[in-house]
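Re: beginner question about structure tokens

> Can someone show what the tokenized structure looks like for a real chain? I only ever see the sequence side.

Sure, here's an example I had lying around. Input first:
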Amino acid sequence: MSIGVVVFPGSNCDRDIAWAVNGCLGMKTRYLWHETRDLSGLEAIVIPGGFSYGDYLRCGAIARFAPVLESLVDFVAEGRKVLGICNGFQVLTELGILPGALTRNKNLNFICDEVDLEVSTSRKDWFPKSFSGDNIKLPIAHGEGRYQCSKETLDNLLDNDLIALRYLKNPNGSLSNIAGITNCSGNVFGLMPHPERACDGQLGGLDGQEILKSLIS
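And the corresponding structure tokens:
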């Protein structure tokens, strides 16, 4: 078994994911070129950060039509885990697997920083060792990370405990300080911060390891 890593023209964090998964989980990765439909033999799938198809139109708007994502819809329906990071989160919202949208940051600038986050869910799908209210620190790097949704959608996220991560100090104007959400089944997680960049104590923190380990929990 291995972890699939989707690769679009413009992806730039696919190798980071492979490095982190190999180091944290000791599992192999398999790159999934955007034109493939074969997801056989995979334990879970990661949609990495980057600029899929150059982010023309808007982030993730073209990527949602990729053949690999047609197969991903069935993969999700089977209950298998999918992690969307940064551009991957944007793609999941465009695809309709996760609700809402990621729009231009409030100050219209690209933000590259390290942020403090609150684990805001009591569900254990992606944070089995953390409790609601625990704080973690992860890097961010995005120009369109401002999460927005309708009041009805926000109420649904709140009522079903689907807001997984919140910014302690909101960097981009996201509604309700949202940094990451899950679907109702709990097998899909989209977040703007980069857990794969917080997996080596010598290069940064280790708070990203728990999220990646949850891919096979």
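Each token stands for a local structural state, so reading them left to right follows the chain. The chain has one domain: 2-216.
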